[in-house]
Amino acid sequence: MAGVDPGRVLNDLQELARRTGGAGGAKRLAWTDGWRHARRLLRERLGEIGLACDEDEAGNLWATLPGVSSERLVLGSHLDSVPAGGPLDGALGVFAALEVLRALAEADEFPATTVALVDWADEEGARFGHSLFGSSAVTRALDPDAVRELVDADGNGLAPVLADHGVDLDRIGTELESGLAEAFAYLELHIEQGPVLEAEGVPVAAVSGTVGVERFTLRFEGAAAHAGSTPMEMRADALLAAAATALEVEAIARRHGGRGTTGTLEVRPGALTVVPASAELGVDLRHEAAEELESMRTEVLAAAAGFAAGRGCRVEETAIWSAVPTAFDPDLVERVRVAAAAAGGREAPLPSGALHDATMVARVLPTAMVFCPSRGGISHSPEEHTDEADIRAAVAVFGEVALELASGGVGCALPSRRRRTK
Amino acid sequence: MAGVDPGRVLNDLQELARRTGGAGGAKRLAWTDGWRHARRLLRERLGEIGLACDEDEAGNLWATLPGVSSERLVLGSHLDSVPAGGPLDGALGVFAALEVLRALAEADEFPATTVALVDWADEEGARFGHSLFGSSAVTRALDPDAVRELVDADGNGLAPVLADHGVDLDRIGTELESGLAEAFAYLELHIEQGPVLEAEGVPVAAVSGTVGVERFTLRFEGAAAHAGSTPMEMRADALLAAAATALEVEAIARRHGGRGTTGTLEVRPGALTVVPASAELGVDLRHEAAEELESMRTEVLAAAAGFAAGRGCRVEETAIWSAVPTAFDPDLVERVRVAAAAAGGREAPLPSGALHDATMVARVLPTAMVFCPSRGGISHSPEEHTDEADIRAAVAVFGEVALELASGGVGCALPSRRRRTK
To answer: N or C, fewer C-beta in 10 Å, chain A?
Structure first.
């Protein structure tokens, strides 16, 4: 059979942008009409190859192309976007999956395995603050009670908005039939959302897994004092304790080969003539290795305590969120790596610093991802862009690995069916 | 003649607190009824010794006790407070000046010189943002056009509010007859508003002058980036450039024996998962020596430029305000120093890190100040406090020097009449 045609994916993305994009960026926020419009295009394209769609209890959209075996390869990503989002984040992976189904549908024979496309619901969490909604639900990682009371910026509750889209939170917990049943592998193409591939000048890479995250705030408490009349040695300046800690977060991240970001810093009382009484620093630490991540966190807390004590301040940590590192399936990652390298892509797999639906799926199923470059590392913005040649190369690699898996493999056996638990 | 009686000053302050204080702190905001109530008490007390008050074109309140010579000693401070202010800031100096007039009025003879009390209008600038209003007007440092458009938090304009209090901005510029005409010296008692005297355990000190101030913001511009997917070495983190600069401001201030404060830091976009694109740091530098202050500023700007460049950021300075250092009159300062030291106070004069009406007056007249301790260095707060024994000691020193000057001096001649220009 013929391979995939990346040109058709580019055409689909153009049509998607025509319907849901424009000057203000992508308007495909989950649980809105813009998202419905995007899904309508997907339904139309699936209809053209004779495939119908089903939505599961969590709002995920599925289409299935039967194969000789009922064992299923699952391909997917997400059509939802942040407000004023980019043209490729999520959508590229969905239409690349569609293209695999199209190529298989045009072939003379059924594929060896069944192949399913999934468009995960509300990956971004941009409206209600809970990302990876649909993939969390399917992998039983979502607690309906933990999200029931969420409201959007306009005060709309999550539960009634979901009900408008035919999703019942209670049925997610009890009746969801997972489209992952009988699946043996999950594959997802996504833009990198970082600057590494562009800087290296490569069009495509395998992804080794997603990093673990420790996210917390450090609240430093010192004492307000008059900027003019308080000698330097009689101060307890909370901002300076936080500033020293922010610089140390960077040093610790570099030392461990991870990432450490201090994206927020709020100073009180925040007056030019008053020594800051308090400063709250937001910290986000990431690493692919759990033990390294834990060491980073320990070192940051020790540094904060030391800087606070040295200035007569106190410091208190408040945990915000954490996620354990997720390594993708070594065999699948190796398949992608070989295909990517052969296409002029990166020799070594790249860890993903962002979470993806694949992070959730990897908890229950052998999983791998394909990355293509993001210009300037920019995503979640109308500026988001990947050169057409890179999109073509990445879709080709994704298609090659997917078709190989669907055909029972060329030179390598199907991955054994494994299920992981958290 | 007898000296001053500090107990009467304590009684006056108690009565002032009864009328304009309370649980929420002092309520003597300039150009409000609370301020009028405070001035009414002062008028009553002056009336008890047969003195009437005049308000000049800038709203300053004057009372004059005639002497043998028409050359005048001027004593004063301010009755206005910040909202929820302390019981002593300004008021202590006004009622100490009143006590000098009382002591002179009770004497059998006219004093050698005329003695005037002044309650400066709107020292704090807490309502319209322009401090030292009345003393600036009298010393011709106030440009009426520069304040004409000021509004308070409720949208009231300065000009109509002043008109309600009989003050016409245009007359300030053209018709103000200065109460400082024929003055040969100005003396002011004030709380320190800093922690030095308390820490040293002394009740009173002479003030050598007020520091110069350089106040500006530094806006660092880097690049927003994804906290997870952007390697540490590919970032342009504006917050970290600002953090390094804040720590260097402290180091520079220590090195020069001045004061350096970074009281504000605003981070954009201010999200936990985004490397900061911009950070605006507020800097306040102070020193008694103009050349040291200029060196501090130069070093801070060089450090900021270096930290920005090292991180691929840009930095831009915006000047906010500056004031040149003001040294008080050496002869007058020495008189106060001798009297303070003899009363168990500080041997050496202390520079004031805050500005005072005396800073303005010193531009045109030999000036000195007396400080007493502030518990915890706290002012502009209902917590503001000075122990009664320290108030007694400071009022006694202030009274001793004032009466000596009014009597033509004991063992030291009157300061020669000098006028300084800026």
So the answer is: C
B345 close to A (CB below 8 A)? no
Give how far Cα A72 sits from Cα of A4, A184, A356, A365, Å: 19, 6, 21, 11
If DSSP codes are grouped into helix, strand and coil, which group holds residue A367? strand
Q: What is the ipTM of this complex?
A: 0.86
Q: Which two tokens mark A154?
A: 């306009």
Tell me the C-alpha distance between A316 and A218, whole Å.
6
Residue B231: count other Cβ atoms within 10 Å of its Cβ: 18
At A184-227, the pLDDT tens digits run: 999 999 999 999 999 999 999 999 999 999 999 999 999 999 99
Tell me how far apart the alpha carbons of residues A83 and A35 are, in angstroms, rounded to a whole number. 11
SS3 B239: helix
Between CA B396 and CA B186 the distance in angstroms is 17
Q: What is the distance between the alpha carbons of residues B299 and A302, in angstroms, rounded to a whole number?
A: 31
A239 in B contact zone (CB under 8 Å): yes
Q: What is the DSSP string of B319-346?
A: EEEEE--EEPPHHHHHHHHHHHHHTT--
Q: What's A133-174 look like in SS3?
A: HHHHHHCCCCCHHHHCCCECCCCCEHHHHHHHCCCCHHHHHH
Three-state secondary-structure class, residue A374: coil
- Residue A229 touches chain B, beta carbons under 8 Å: yes
DSSP-based three-state secondary structure for A55? strand
Rounded Cα–Cα distance for residues B202 and B372 (Å): 8
Is the distance from CB of A271 to CB of B243 less than 8 angstroms? Answer: no
| pTM score of the predicted model | 0.86
